[in-house]
Amino acid sequence: MSLDPESEQVREVYAYYGLAMYWAQCVEQSIFQHLIFFDYFPKAIASYSTSEKWAAEFDQYESRELGQTMGKLVRRLREAGQPTQSIERALADVLLQRNWLAHGYFSDRAIEFTLPEGRSGMIAELESLREVFMAAADELDAITLPLATKYGMTEEMLSKVQAEMMEEYAKSRSNA
């Protein structure tokens, strides 16, 4: 059964919204990864004693940091002394845009959402937000990746981690 044009456009708005929110979350992950290499590793390496202790402490760090709001993660990044002025500006904008997207977007666009031209504008706006979020993630990753490499993170290791995550996901789906 095919959808009528209005329903198809509504579906498209939701798809673009989901993609924009996905990239907002990618920025959060990029901030966290940045903190790992610029905050956690330099401190943790000095106290490294066993692999088990390392894994337990990392799990605690990850749980604590990823439990923070995006605003707190941005503040933590600032406290770690890492962001450039360019990243500071980008993250300030990303934080405002992400919070608006998460907490006010559809209520602010309630009238537009009822009109075909309004939904078209929303799609363009959401695409623009996605591009802002992607650019911020890329800017952070460009700084983080060279340090990750210095700590020994290789493309092969990244591929292995990704394969393990996919395997874990497949297991969880088969047990559901």
Report on this model:
With 176 residues, this protein is mainly alpha-helical. Helices cover 86% and strands 0% of the residues. The protein contains 8 helices and no strands. It has helices at residues 5-46, 51-66, 70-79, 85-103, 105-108, 110-113, 116-150, 155-175. The longest helix has 42 residues, at 5-46.
Please give a quick description of this structure.
The chain has 176 residues and is mostly helical. The chain contains 8 helices and no strands. The chain is 86% helix and 0% strand.
- Please state the average pLDDT score: 89
Described by the principal axes of the CA atoms, the overall outline is globular
Rg from Cα: 20 Å
Number of helical elements: 8
Question: What descriptive keywords fit this protein?
Answer:
176 residues, mainly alpha, 86% helix, globular
Q: Would you spell out the secondary-structure blueprint of this structure?
A:
Elements: H1 5-46, H2 51-66, H3 70-79, H4 85-103, H5 105-108, H6 110-113, H7 116-150, H8 155-175
Helix pairs in contact: 1-2, 1-3, 1-4, 1-7, 3-4, 4-7
